[in-house]
Amino acid sequence: MTKRRRSLSNAFRTLDRVLGGQRPPTRLQRRVAEHPYVAGLCVTVPYILFFLLIAPEDEPGNLPFATLGGLAVGTCFTLTALAERSRQRRLERTRKV
Question: Which among 29, 59, 67, 75 has the fewest CB atoms less than 10 Å away?
Fold first, then answer.
């Protein structure tokens, strides 16, 4: 299991390097990586409001649907921000060596 995890990690890092992951982060990327949960919340609230806006008014299940949809988008964004945080930590480690 450890070999499989290590090979997946190496494959991800190779793909990241090919896609330009060695470049220094922008100011926005640094800010999002510093506060990933706040960034996720800042995305969640507008999406909840957006889903409420486009939902039909006569259905009673709109609020749970809008909330779950917004939370799904916010969770995806938060996980992306956490991945960016780990990428920046890895960049710092490789630059110090």
Answer: 59
In whole angstroms, how far apart are CA 23 and each of 29, 62, 67, 73?
A: 12, 43, 36, 27
Segments forming the whole domain that contains residue 41: 24-96
Two structure tokens written together for 69: 């949809």
- Rounded CA-CA distance 75/35 in Å is 14
Note whether 88 and 25 are within 8 A (CB): yes
The answer to whether residue 7 sits within a structural domain is no
Residue 1: its pLDDT value, please?
A: 59
Q: How many domains does the chain have?
A: 1
How do residues 6-64 score in pLDDT, each as one tens digit? Answer: 788 788 778 878 877 788 889 999 999 999 999 999 999 999 999 888 888 877 788 88
Cα(97)–Cα(4) distance, integer angstroms? 26
